[in-house]
Amino acid sequence: MKTAIYPGTFDPLTNGHLDLIERASKLFARLIVLVGENTAKKPLFNVDERIKMIKDSIKHLKNVTVDSNSELTVEYARKHNVNILVRGVRAFADFEYELQMALMNRKLDENIETVFLMPKNEYSYLNSSLIKGIADFDADIKDFVPNAVIKMLKKKKIRG
User: Fold this and answer.
1) Which portions of the chain are predicted below pLDDT 70?
2) CB 44 within 8 A of CB 158
3) What are the CA-CA distances from residue 134 to residues 29, 47, 56, 129, 145 (Å)?
């Protein structure tokens, strides 16, 4: 039974992320959603808040767990005996970046394989930065993010 890791910043989780989590959970016996502690990105939500939003949004998925990581994803994968990474690709620009990441990960550990998934069409343009930007202008984001994210954005005083 294969385990895969879906790494990302998830600041915040979008319906596109959730779509990929749900679909990957059907492909693998176990899926670890790995929240990156990348402080260079200056996230709006701290790691614990992001983990909570994800956990609240995936309660219906029994084979999915959430963890955090402050090291290279490859190192985390080695420590947890996982050799499959799941990455989302929305557009050609994503593919170029994700291909570079996949090749670098393979160079760092030749046992690491990357599986690319595309979100449903209705989520193909979503990203976390867009969500934060439009939420700040009080736009209705209920079609773009899970309810748990809307609640957390309101706590942060982002209108959403």
Assistant:
1) 39, 157-160
2) yes
3) 36, 22, 22, 9, 12
Three-state secondary structure readout of 75-117: HHHHHCCCCEEEEECCCHHHHHHHHHHHHHHHHHCCCCEEEEE
- The residues annotated with a catalytic role in the active site are 17, 41, 90, 128
At 34 the pLDDT is: 98
Q: What's the pLDDT tens digit per position in 44-70?
A: 999 999 999 999 999 999 999 999 999
Fold designation for 3-155: Rossmann fold (3.40.50)
By three-state DSSP, how is residue 49 classified? helix
Helix or strand (DSSP H, E) at 143: none
Domain map of the chain by residue range?
A: 3-155
Which residues are CB-contacts of 98 (< 8 A; sequence separation ≥ 6)?
87, 88, 89, 114, 116
